[in-house]
# Entry
Amino acid sequence: MAGIGFNLQKILEQESFGSTLKAHFYSTLIVAGPWLMSILTIVCLGYFITYRIDVFDLIFFRTVIIYIFAFSLIVVGFFHFPLTRYLSDKLYTKEYESLIPTFITACGGLLSVQALMGIIFYVIIPGKPFLKVLTVFIYMTISLIWILMVFLTALRDYRAIVVSYGIGTLIAIVTAWYFGQNLGLEGYFLGYLLGHLTIVILWSARIFIEFNSTRGFDADFFPFMLQNKTLVFIGLFYNLAIWIDKIVLWLSPQATKITAILRNHPIYDSAVFFAFLTIIPALSLFLIQIETEFYRNYRRFYLGIINKATYSQIEILKKELLENIRASVMILLRYQGLISLAAIVFAPQLAELLKFSAVQIPVFRIATLGAFLHSLLLMTIIIILYFDLQKEALMVTGLFVATNALLTFVTTRLDISFLGYGYLTSTLISLAAAFYLLDNRLRSLEYLTFARQPIGVHREEGIGEIILY
# Structure
């Protein structure tokens, strides 16, 4: 996402209050567009509820959308990091003609896998066949949006992205309300589908307009995934870790049964959901400033090595890189820390605005603190992957999903006052492990850079020759 970050920084160069707001508005929609779009749609549909929709229908609609987001993200986790790495390699080597085949191949592979999950959704969702089909189509459409977001790096056209979000959200709200008056619950699902399908069509069209290719399929992508299984599991573990605490609570005795299979945990779900919204400023800051500044120092360090800089020069470049990482952490601690602290202090006032119950206030506070640590964890994982420390990233994400599942399960056996402490403790443990591994590897960055270069044996006319690539 650093490519878009550099474009957004050009807005900041205007050095005015309006340009700052504009840049952060764009970055917020880029990093959290699908979430904000769904929140706005659901809130508006709840406020302008039609006479054919009752309270149970609205709860059912929200629960199904949450399940769609959860399981679509988990499955997309298999593709996310391998696709990001593969696309990055193609962009680095300027093989722009490979982007369309990669896009078609990734979408085709994802939809093939998600079709199996779609069958499960069709079976477990109660209601008429039309409602079941709409649910499956929404599931597939949201899955495509997650994949399309990876290609935002290639587009770098933040205006097209934001405009697409605006058009899609407006269509989702208006059509869902209109069809809801005539079709009831099915109308809500139909409108929601049309809004998100609009985004998929607009983004896909933008990709095909931006890049040309005579090929329709990339035969190298799936072999690349098999050769980079570590990246596959990093994506799976991280996305699963985000949702595993909710899934554990959905399966707990304290959960509320919506249908025979669909369950939710109203006290925890909504509190954590809004707690996640408090870290959107951190994600925006990371996109528009932290990652771009880090990338500049990161690139200078490796260009110094490629251009055969002296060891003393490489040490200076490394020192600048490490100082940039420390400064980035401090910026995030101050900037996001104040926002999270304000959300915790003013939780009662926010609870009144968001219509929380009294029991949800402490859960929101704990979840907000956990989300703050989560934002630091995400930044650390991204930096770890910049240095291609895949084993370390796998250990951190594996630890995250395991501790989040286990500790959340423990809290289900305790008093309700412990709700949220499983997620908080898990993020703290995972963040500590991530910081330790990153710091340990950065101390020996020069050694790792040279020692990890692959050595192969080239044989020509019977003579073995050692070649350092």
The longest helix spans residues 55-92. The chain has two domains: 2-18+31-227, 276-453. Residues 212 and 295 are 28 Å apart (CA to CA).
